[in-house]
Write a structure and sequence with these properties.
Elements: E1 12-15, H1 21-29, E2 35-37, H2 44-51, E3 54-58, H3 67-74
Parallel strand pairs: 1-2, 1-3
Helix pairs in contact: 2-3
């Protein structure tokens, strides 16, 4: 498998709304260890902070990744 530009343990993954544990297991089995798990959706300010340095964000239907959230997380 080709190497990534960053070590997988350095890439932050944020999973919200109780994403199934098999997703976490799959990421871990593939070498990702920096996984931030939230059982519920987050209020906008907390969501911005949670995804600020994330490379992967996993959501379900309650979380809204609005333009404001995404732009604010890039700052």
């Amino acid at each position: 498998m080709p190497e990534t530009s960053f070590s997988k343990d350095k890439l932050k993954i944020v999973l919200l709304e109780g994403v199934h544990s098999s997703a976490v297991d799959t990421f871990r089995a593939d070498g990702y260890s920096n996984i931030d798990i939230h059982q519920k959706s987050l209020p906008e300010r907390q969501l911005i902070e949670a995804i600020r340095d994330a490379y992967i964000v996993g959501i379900r239907s309650a979380t809204q990744l609005t333009q404001n959230v995404l732009e604010s997380a890039l700052i």
